[in-house]
Amino acid sequence: MDREAQMADLYVIGIDGGGTKTACVVMDHKQKILGQARTGSSNRNSVGNEVAYTNLHKTITEALHAAGCQLQDIGALCLGMAGVDRQQERVLVNGWIERLLPNIPILLYNDALIALASGTGGDLCGVAVISGTGMIVYGINRSGQTQRAGGWGPLFGDNGSGYAIGAAALTAVALATDGLGPPTALDGALRDYLDLSTPQALIPWAYSDLSWARIAELAPLVAEVAQQRDPVAMRIIEEAAIDLAAAVEVVVRGLDLLNTPTPIVLSGGNFLPGLFSTLVSQHLHSITPNAQLMRPSVEPAAGAALLALNHLKKEQHRE
């Protein structure tokens, strides 16, 4: 049997194991998605080992069923998940998958790397810049060296994230109300959005559910008020863009990619078209004029599947 025929008989699995959901796709050798599934979080730091393990197995099983594939049809699996940079977690998660799919290559990557692959078509060289509820910048060069900046979580700042933008807006309203900061249109905009009558009503709203995501959901509103030229909102968005670009510069310099045509994949909800995305792009073009800024062309789970497929192809060529 030739290599092409061997590849045609095998499929790959790509998984995006996030803090809120687990997405899984089954892909064939022509990069066609045959089946997919979603379950709850498989991030053990968010939901614990038992729930993470259950959700991971459930989404794999459901995706295989949707694709009409059997366990023995799978040639490789790639999982992107926060925290798998650490050896202890790699061993644990690898063991979870081996219980269901023994004797196949299992690739475990930081979730930022599958975001990178979702923009580059499976090429693992470049920089992923993620700004959603949180933020992280993660890069890898042709030598396989990696470097990251950010991703510490909201308690450590997460400058350039949706949480940081939303928290800065709440602070700005509090300072304006107390006369310690300039007046801002953010006051009325936030209260209209949350249906609150007074600035002080923001206090019970904020403390009733200490969820990072709730604060981060205010970020698009802050960007909207900034577009209307409110000086305070503009400053918040500009500072967030500068912070994120500074993290990218550290990673790019650390990997010696400053003067090479490097793919930089911008991923996450804050990179929807708008002022923040425009400012980040402007700063990055200034810092790394040879960089190739791009958006993901597929979902992260599909990016993970492309990495698994590329691995399988390389293994076939070695034989």
Largest sheet: 5 strands, mixed
> What CATH architecture label of the largest domain applies?
2-Layer Sandwich
Task: List unreliable stretches of 5+ residues.
Answer: none
State the distance separating the first and last CA atoms: 12 Å
Helix/strand/pairing class, anyone? alpha/beta
Order of helices and strands: HEEEHHEHEHEEEHHHHHHEHEH
The DSSP helix count reads 13
Mean pLDDT: 91
Instruction: Classify the beta-strand content into a percent band.
Output: 15-25%
How are the strands of the largest sheet arranged? 3-2-1-4-5
State the helical fraction. 40-55%
Quaternary class: single chain
CATH class of the largest domain: Alpha Beta
- Rg over C-alpha atoms, rounded to the nearest angstrom: 21 Å
Total individual domains: 2
The CATH superfamily of the largest domain turns out to be: ATPase, nucleotide binding domain
Task: Classify the fold: give the CATH topology of the largest domain.
Answer: Nucleotidyltransferase, domain 5
